Amino acid sequence: MWGIVLRYQDEISLSRQIFLSFKERILTGQIPQGEALPSTRELAKGLGVSRNTVCEAYDMLLAEGFIVSRQGAPSRVAEGLYLDTYRKVKLPTEIKKDKPPILWDFKTGQPDLSLFPWPLWSQMIRGAANYLPIKQLEYTGPKGYQPLCEEIAMWLLRSRSMEVNPEDVFITAGATQALHLLVDLLHKKEHAFALENPSHPGIRTVITDKGYPLQWMPVDEQGANISFLEGKAVSAVYVTPSHQFPLGSILPAGRRAALIRLAIENDFYVIEDDYDSEFRYSGSPVSPIYSMDSSHVVYIGTFSKTLFPALRLGFAVLPKPLQAKWRHYRNFMDVQNPILEQAALAEFLNKRKMDKHVQHMRRVYGEKRKFLLSSIEHAFGNAVRPWGDASGLHVALQFPGMGFGKQFVRDSMEAGIRVYPLTQYCPAQNNHKDKLLVGYGHLSHVQIQEGIRALYQLMARET
């Protein structure tokens, strides 16, 4: 009746199905304005449902203004409801070609999640749910869970020898959110943000999407060349000094000091992204720039790679002059992070489970890195040169005389290999064309060996 077909096994109630059917027919003009609808008794009989079900549907139509009703008169369709754009045109389904499966995925920044202590983490989440004070379930503000801020300050002291006041620690949804906030907070009109070249495309995208100008600092085997900033109008400088992404170099003390002097003289801040600093396989962790001067450095970190990416918890250590504005911006972005995860992480740090996990994973990743380089040497001989310090979850490989572009990416995907030309991280696609970025943290020894062999075979076919 009236083109209404009811689905009795559907999760949507019968009354709402009737409402939706009338709504669609009214908006598409199948039932014109002013048209009288059947009485509730008549429609109920025609559809084989109770009158109460139809009355519910009519009440919905009346409440949302699709019909008008007067005592003693039939309900009629309200005026001005026809929407030509509401018509849904069914397009022919595109037949998609099946893509070959990725057998060897050398993506970067991916930890080995199989070795994370999930039972222990689950226990801490349950503990937070059971023992967290009710007051903590209210809005607690943009700074973050204070016990977690205190534990992060202690963790930085233990792992980096950084002396940090917990009041300067602000919890974020990973490093990406910190960058979004800082870019708006530090922007100065007609001043550029200075980035390393090459660098992570994420920070570049955050800045350019906001329409702010960029200034590039070339990167060599000693990190960013700070001299390129002299005489430039700068909003802020973003660097990855402990393990430059993606080339892996360490910024030496002389360049760090020069950067701090420029920041003080020109009144800008340095955004220090301590990328991959937990996983250094030769010697102690590299000291952060923050330890040299905390007045002009914003230190940001994340637990995405030390624990697991979906955790989405990071932090920023902010100089006092930036904190009020940060609170304002964060308050009107999303207020705060989920409290249970913050409480569980605070406990994870407090019980030194983080220390134990990082020590274990440092050994595991160090062995994987050695095995990767040995597999590369076995397949390619001495024709490949690794770049950077022995740290992190990826390595940059230089293949002298080779060039890797978009066609190589397509060919490698066809061969079941996901690998990243370093040109993808450069603003100009003609730089570092002979380098590939190879991630290994999440791969087993067998996957590494087979993947490198497959990569060698692919490159042998193309040369």
UniProtKB/TrEMBL annotation:
Keyword DNA-binding (UniProt): yes
Database matches in SUPFAM superfamilies: PLP-dependent transferases, Winged helix' DNA-binding domain
Superkingdom, taxonomy of origin: Bacteria
Family matches, as InterPro entries: Aminotransferase_I/II_large, HTH_trans_reg/aminotransferase, PyrdxlP-dep_Trfase, PyrdxlP-dep_Trfase_major, Tscrpt_reg_HTH_GntR, WH-like_DNA-bd_sf, WH_DNA-bd_sf
Limits of the HTH gntR-type domain: 12-80
Key word DNA-binding present: yes
Pfam families listed in its UniProt record: Aminotran_1_2, GntR
Keywords recorded for this protein, A-Z: DNA-binding, Pyridoxal phosphate, Transcription, Transcription regulation
CDD domains with a match to the protein in the record: AAT_like, WHTH_GntR
GO MF term list: DNA binding; DNA-binding transcription factor activity; pyridoxal phosphate binding
Family: In the C-terminal section; belongs to the class-I pyridoxal-phosphate-dependent aminotransferase family.
The protein, known as: Transcriptional regulator, GntR family
Organism: Anaerovirgula multivorans
